[in-house]
Design a protein that fits this description.
- There is one protein chain.
- By secondary structure, the chain is α/β, with parallel strands linked by helices.
- The chain has two domains: 53 residues, Urease, subunit C, domain 1 (Roll), CATH 2.30.40; 188 residues, Metal-dependent hydrolases (TIM Barrel, Alpha-Beta Barrel).
- The chain is built from seven helices and eleven strands.
- Strands 1, 2, 3, 4 and 5 form a five-stranded mixed beta sheet that branches. A four-stranded parallel beta sheet has the order 6-7-8-9. The protein has a two-stranded parallel sheet with strand order 10-11.
- A hairpin with a 7-residue loop joins strand 1 and strand 2.
- The N and C termini lie far apart (55 Å).
- The relative contact order is 0.10.
Length: 248
């Protein structure tokens, strides 16, 4: 007998043939055992999904869970004129004030919103320059409490000082080494090596991040793709420094 049976739903299998079927899903021990028309439709919990769509959870490829703290915030600042000023006047000041408790609560709030919108896995970077040490543990605790899966890292940044970037990378290494000791059954939260935009991270820090990722065999998440959107602004102020930053 199954633990959970979801019946009468329109199932988007998302398998190679992209089958869409009307049927049931049998779940045992937290794993999907059968999709379609299970022979045994007895279960401890039965969910009638008549008139509803049942599909695999969505994936959020990039996020900053703690930024939910700014939602609907009454910002008393001079309106930013470009992305750089958004960072300087909005995002970075928040990063300086985020505490460990803020980190846990904001990640939990973001996780609940992910669940509400069908997201069951996300990749995200923590950015709390005012409380770097062990901040990823608080992120992981909130994600695990919500029952999601995630890959998380600390956004190592030299926006203020080189020493701050080193502390951010040290937090990445600490968390990654700790995660390597855990099996998938122990935790559904893994780690990634995180770095800030190239204009807030020196070539030395970028190379260090790549070495850490290679040594520990983890993903290296560097904020590059979004730089295409702000390339004009950064190019005006940084010259060809952005291009040099890619030569790692």
């Amino acid at each position: 007998m199954a633990d959970i049976l979801i019946k009468n739903g329109l199932i988007l299998t998302m398998n190679r043939s992209r089958r869409v079927i009307k049927g049931s899903i049998s779940i045992e021990g937290g794993e999907i055992k059968e999709v379609g028309n299970p022979e045994d439709e007895r279960a401890d919990t039965v969910i009638d999904a008549e008139g509803k769509i049942v599909m695999p959870g969505l994936i959020c490829a990039y996020s900053h869970p703690c930024k939910i703290l700014l939602r609907a915030a009454p910002l008393k600042i001079e309106p930013p004129a470009d992305f750089t000023q958004v960072l300087q006047r909005v995002w970075w000041p928040l990063d300086e004030e985020v505490s460990d408790e803020d980190t846990y609560v904001s990640t939990l709030a973001s996780s609940l919103e992910f669940i509400k919108t069908g997201v069951t896995f996300f990749a995200g970077l923590q950015s709390s320059q005012g409380s770097i040490g062990k901040s990823l543990d608080h992120v992981a605790s909130a994600v695990e409490k919500a029952g999601l899966r995630a890959l998380i890292g600390f956004r190592a940044s030299e926006r203020n000082t080189r020493a701050e970037g080193a502390r951010g990378m040290k937090e990445n290494v600490r968390f990654l080494e700790n995660r390597r000791k855990k099996s998938l059954g122990e935790s559904k939260v893994g780690g990634i090596v995180g770095l800030d935009f190239s204009f807030a991270a020196s070539n030395e820090l970028l190379k260090h991040g790549r070495r850490v990722a290679n040594r520990l065999m983890y993903l290296f998440l560097y904020l590059l793709l979004r730089e295409r959107l702000i390339f004009t602004t950064i190019w005006k102020s940084m010259g060809n420094e952005l291009l040099r930053g890619l030569e790692i």
